[in-house]
Amino acid sequence: MIAAVVTHNPSKAALQDNLLATLHRTGHFKHLMAAVKATGLADMLDGAGPYTFFAPNDKAFDRLARNELVDLLKPESKARLTAILLLHVVAGHVKAAAAGSQPATLKSLQGEDLAIDMTPAGLRVNKARAVERDIEATNGVIHVIDTVLMPAAS
Is pLDDT at 11 greater than 50 in this prediction? Predict the structure, then answer.
């Protein structure tokens, strides 16, 4: 298992936005932002961190089964949606280079391990592919993934 690496980032002083503001600014995370709002996790992700967020973009959410996102955003699905989102977050500041050349694991805030691997095609997290990586924020780092990760118990 890789320990979360907290690194000194000299350019961090120039960063202005936290994780959520960074995601919001891009405009490619409307579904994710709605999910964060529905679960009440915004305060945590606005907090000091640092966190590493494997953030599924809107295309990833669009790949869910028809009406699954609608069902997940219902108040009665809050616990399940919270578990899904926490599976995408690890404590610490983990850059893609931490994956190294050997597969490794990180413990998500949901409690499950995430398998990370740097392949010739790029960073993979479980079965998701990072389409962008190492997006810095004041309280962590974002890796944009192409799949919504689901807890094993789902």
Answer: no
